[in-house]
Amino acid sequence: MSKHQLKLDERIRAEDELFRAMAHHGENKLLATGFVVALFLHVAVLFIHFPDMNSLIPEKKQENVIQVTKYVPPPPKVKKREIVQQKLTRKVPIPDPTPDEPEPIREPEPEEDPEPIPADVEFIIGVPEPPPPTGPLLAGVNNVSNPVLIESTKIEPEYPELARVARLEGQVILQAIVRKDGTVGDISVIRVNRPNLGFEDSAIAAVKQWRYEPALQNGKPVEVYFTVVVDFSLH
Questions:
Q1: Are 215 and 145 in contact (CB under 8 A)?
Q2: What is the mean pLDDT of the chain?
Q3: What is the distance between the alpha carbons of residues 189 and 170, in angstroms, rounded to a whole number?
């Protein structure tokens, strides 16, 4: 086969393929045209049967809108302040043309001569004695003697029953006031070795009945504080 024959065959094949492509394209175009025509016919039928298409669409409800307008009050009127200038008046005292008369100068009165001191009067120079103290003194201090117990008046205190049953001994220290006549005044408890057993009450009751020879100061009886010791023994 010659070259010319080969070229002719290739040209025939190309033309054949081109023709087939054009035929296929024509079929597709025909189908598209038919689809458009059918769609147009359907739309026309709808318009014929339903001339008022808008009635099929539901109406949109109109919402009630309340418009609120904010009230802005007008600015207050500013009153002009009236400035009143007051005149300040100051009273200036007017001096008295007639000055006060000066007080008259008084001459000092002459002092009277003191009375003459008699020649027989003696002057005693020294420290006066202090006043006597009030209240009881402390026995055995500042030339104060101790009161002396009169043995015949000494009454033994009763032994407390509670302490006797418990076989307990005790000691009570009292501070008593011994009066000028030797009797015993107020009594207070200084110390007790076994409290709450009745030793204190028994000792005070006994000492209240005792009598003393009073304490002396410069030979005179005085009232004094005096310490009394009362022992309680089972023997």
A1: yes
A2: 75
A3: 14
User: What is the per-residue pLDDT for 222?
Assistant: 95
DSSP state of 151: G
If we measure between CA atoms, which residue out of 145, 136, 133, 132 comes closest to residue 187?
A: 136
Interval 181-199 mean pLDDT: 95
Nearest to 209 by CA among 126, 147, 149: 149
> pLDDT (tens digit, 9 = 90+) per residue, 222-231?
999 999 999 9
What would the pLDDT profile of 107-149 be if each residue is shown by its tens digit?
A: 777 777 777 666 665 555 555 666 666 779 998 888 999 999 9
Alpha helices for the chain (secondary structure H): 3-49, 161-165, 199-207
Dihedral, 106, 111, 112, 114 alpha carbons, nearest 10: 170
User: Helix, strand or coil for residue 117?
Assistant: coil
Class of domain 137-232: alpha beta
* Strand order across the 137-138 sheet: 137-138, 224-232, 170-178, 184-192
Tokens 């002092």 appear where? 111
d(C-alpha 198, C-alpha 45), whole Å: 137
Distance from chain centroid for Cα 7? 123
- Is residue 168 within 8 Å of 210, Cβ to Cβ? no
Whether the model pTM is above 0.70 = no
Location of structure tokens 């080969």: 6
